[in-house]
Every structure is written in C-alpha cells, then in structure tokens.
C-alpha cells in the first residue's frame, strides 16, 4: 500500500512524503520528471535502469528523466521525494 502526501509544490519543484507498507513491490515506473528520493525510515530496494540498490535510513537515490525504475519495500518505510518539474498527475 502507498500513501502520498504533497508537502509543497512551488515553482518547478514538488516535495512529496510517501509511506510504503512492508512487502510492497511497485510496478516499473517512468516519467519525464527528475526525482531524488531520501529514505527517512525503513529500507527499500530501488531498481533504476536495471541496477538494484538496497537503501536504508539516510540514503538518497537519484532517478534521471525517463529512467525506468521501481521500488521493493524490505522494511516499512517513509520516503521523501523531490520532483522537477512538478508531477502534474500527482498534484490532482
């Protein structure tokens, strides 16, 4: 399960808090916006462009524009995402 809360969206930036439950395994995602994900708590496996990384509290993952990516939750987590430009489909 995924819970998103938009904390701020001004100018060309969007700041989003994402809560992911244990055992969540996301589908491959791809979008034009650049993304930086900060792991606030828990642990996840990020796959970006076919490369997998295990991330825990305090780690950061950069996702370039149009890169295929997905996440698999290892331990229930909170991720802070920054997007540029704004992800309009999330702002609705």
Automatic annotation (TrEMBL):
Q: Which residues form the Cupin type-2 domain?
A: 25-83
State the superkingdom: Bacteria
InterPro entries given in the database record: Bacilysin_H2HPP_isomerase, Cupin_2, KdgF, RmlC-like_jellyroll, RmlC_Cupin_sf
Q: Which PANTHER family match?
A: H2HPP ISOMERASE (PTHR40112:SF1)
The entry's protein name is Cupin domain-containing protein
- Give the organism the record lists: Halalkalibacter alkalisediminis
């Amino acid at each position: 399960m995924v819970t998103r809360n938009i904390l701020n969206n001004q100018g060309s930036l969007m700041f989003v808090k994402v809560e992911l439950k244990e055992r969540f395994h996301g589908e491959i995602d791809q979008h034009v916006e650049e993304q930086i994900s900060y792991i606030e708590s828990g642990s996840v496996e990020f796959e970006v462009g076919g490369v997998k990384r295990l991330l825990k509290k305090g780690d950061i993952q950069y996702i370039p524009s149009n890169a295929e990516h997905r996440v698999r939750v290892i331990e229930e987590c909170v991720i802070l995402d920054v997007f540029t430009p704004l992800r309009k489909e999330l702002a609705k």
